[in-house]
Design a protein that fits this description.
It is a single chain. The chain is mainly alpha-helical. Helix 2 runs antiparallel to helix 7 and helix 8 runs antiparallel to helix 9. Helix content is about 75%, strand content about 5%. The chain contains ten helices and two strands. A hairpin with a 2-residue loop joins strand 1 and strand 2. It is globular, with a radius of gyration of 18 Å. The longest helix is centred in the N-terminal third of the chain and has 28 residues.
């Protein structure tokens, strides 16, 4: 138990350092908050991949998630963490992220399958920031997606990069998990790529941070 508490404190300090580094970089280099926000999303989320391998109880993850939820929620109207909050659009994505990590971990913990956490969090950590950055920086021949008469906040290049990266990550992860590549591996990876892309495309105000890993996890529970 003592080791688990020490690990919790270490991870807590590490993620605080990530947030501090992101904030300093944002202020010193005068970067766009959309860029620093994506960096924080990527690095903080990716660092949680080890959770199933170091924590024997979901309560430790709940403590970490609750701590960062409070920090991000309280700081959203202040001058702190402009690197994350100072964006033009309204978004709950920053403080929904810890909730998503905990819920995804809880399901995998209860079902005793670590892979149910690892793959969804990999997709959330890598594909979401990639789609956002590519969508923002490739302006030429890149348009916002129109669906059923509505203009979505997502772009064609961003969504295309999301589905490709999600599919590739899923294929590799599923192959490493099962040790064999079959048609089921291909179709499940494709299904995860499609459903997570649609989730990212249709969700607004940052709710995709919660629903992307949960939608991927649902497919894994049903078809794995």
């Amino acid at each position: 138990m003592i080791n688990q508490i020490v690990l919790t404190v270490i991870i807590l300090a590490a993620i605080i350092c990530v947030l501090a580094f992101t904030e300093i970089t944002y202020r010193r280099l005068d970067l766009k908050s959309e860029i620093t926000r994506k960096f924080a999303h990527f690095s903080a989320t990716l660092s949680t991949i080890i959770f199933p391998y170091i924590f024997s109880s979901h309560w430790y993850v709940l403590v970490l998630a609750s701590f960062f939820f409070v920090i991000l929620f309280v700081s959203r109207h202040g001058t702190q963490l402009g690197s994350i909050h100072k964006i033009e659009r309204k978004s709950v994505g920053s403080y929904v992220l810890p909730v998503a990590i905990y819920l995804t971990f809880l399901v995998s913990f209860l079902l005793r399958i670590k892979f149910l956490y690892v793959l969804p969090i990999l997709i959330l950590a890598i594909c979401d920031p990639m789609a956002g950055i590519l969508g923002m920086n490739f302006k030429k021949n890149n348009k916002q997606i129109h669906l059923f008469g509505h203009t979505l906040q997502k772009t064609y290049i961003g969504s295309l990069s999301f589905i490709i990266s999600s599919f590739i990550i899923s294929v590799i992860a599923l192959y490493l998990y099962s040790g064999v590549f079959t048609l089921k591996t291909f179709w499940l990876a494709l299904g995860i790529g499609v459903i997570t892309t649609l989730t990212e495309m249709l969700c607004q105000k940052g709710w995709d941070n919660l629903l992307i890993p949960l939608s991927a996890q649902l497919l894994l529970v049903v078809f794995l």
